[in-house]
Amino acid sequence: MQQPVNYDSDFCGSLPIHLTNLIQSYGLLLVIEPVNYTIVQASENTTVVFGSRAQDLVGNPIASFISEKSNADFLQRLTDGANTVIPMVWEVGQNNYVVLIHRKEKFLVIELELKAINENSNERFIDVYQEMKYAMSAIEATRTIEETCTLVARELKRISGFDKVMVYQFDEQWNGHVLAEAKESDMESYFGFTFPASDIPKPARDLYLRNSFRLIPDRNYTPVRLHPVINPITNSFIDLSDCNLRSVAAVHVEYLGNMGVTASMSTRILHHDALWGLIACHHKTPKYLSYAMTSMFEMMSSIISVKITSLQNQTLHASQSTLTAGYAELIEAIYKKEKLDSTMLSATGLMNLFECSGMTISRGGKFTSVGEVPAVGDLDELILWLHTRALKKVYTTDRLSQAYEYAKLFEDIASGLMVIPINAAIDEYVLLFRPEKVHVIQWGGNPEERIQFEQDQRTYHPRHSFKVWQQTVRGISLPWRAEQTAAAEALRSFIYEYETTLVR
């Protein structure tokens, strides 16, 4: 049977979105060599700020185009040795501009926002800062992830003025589930929707680990090329991975258009340095954000990430405490009764500890079970399958029938399986079962139509509709948590030591 294409990894995952050689038109970009600070490449919109075309800038030192003070500040910042993005202000003629300096390969990449700073910029920054302080206090007071996400959506919409703000979390397959939403009444609601992983493919997700936000002020912009197209020193494209101005993939521009969105801003949420979710902001019309506002989004990204991590750590700690206490009681009972299997099968044994609905101990070709478990014949087949895996560690799955097709016959009572190998060589195991948990996913459009190819099978488009598309999911149980697997590993080691001691 032909396997379905995984667009997230097989197709979208191979797109080099960081090597576009194009930028968005709300800024200009310079590539400078860091010895004589000569301009090597320039975007073809430099006339707006410098009064000179890109080809006239290339080959000249940057000092020829900015004020003496700006050049001195620029050189001083570079000698400070900072490896992160360096923000500063350049004076060009009568105007001041925000610039961001990146160290990239053997070059300095300069991003300059075309909108000049005016005398009210400091006041606006103070206003944004005050609003952020209020939001920070409110976020700190929340007690659950749902409460946090709801407040974040509401506050960021209020502060930023976007028409809609959504907070969504990635699942294990990188599908995004909308946990919270704040919107204008004329914006379509996606609350509770799930969007397929290919909507934000792996290359884009990887870039969020490097950059805290992605701003698209106007999807209808005309991309601006660099001059020359190829870096004359490296004979290759410059890597724009860390640049805010990096141009947007055509398929994503079309995707936003199909949503009725003109401007967007996405901010990452991290958990232990991994991408946990995103805050997605949408606007019906073009919307430019000042440096003060994008800085606020950067800071809020860190604050929200810390809060989400704190809440998840609290949940993990509570779960670990419960497991530790239950595990200690179980071990104590085993030593007290000197009966390993019967104690594990008791009401206060493993079923309670690991939140399962059935349990079987396989020894000497015989089964001892409690709760809801597969029939003896099905257990025989399951043991044969496990034998081929030669397990040395605890094995868990919340979708057994996807790994072991025969399990479709009993997935109503055993979609989830935890196997604690006692001695896999002679088919001795502790088997813990969880029942199927049927649930409905509300997709934002049909996930089977997430990418549509033209007849040439090369040109492709995103789906046109985001109307709810319901999918009933079967054959999956509640997932086994990492701390449960760790506790099961500890139990496996204990069983080995306990039985080894008895043999002695």
UniProtKB/TrEMBL annotation:
UniProt keywords, alphabetically: Chromophore, Photoreceptor protein, Receptor, Sensory transduction
InterPro entries: GAF, GAF-like_dom_sf, PAS, PAS-like_dom_sf, PAS_2, Phyto_chromo_attachment, Phytochrome, Phytochrome_cen-reg
PROSITE patterns named in the record: PHYTOCHROME_2 (PS50046)
SMART domains named in the record: GAF
Pfam family of the protein (one): PAS_2
Single Gene Ontology MF annotation: photoreceptor activity
Coiled coil: none
Domain Phytochrome chromophore attachment site: 144-299
Biological process terms in GO annotation: detection of visible light; regulation of DNA-templated transcription
Database matches in Gene3D superfamilies: 3.30.450.270, 3.30.450.40, PAS domain
Protein name: Phytochrome
Organism: Pseudochryseolinea flava
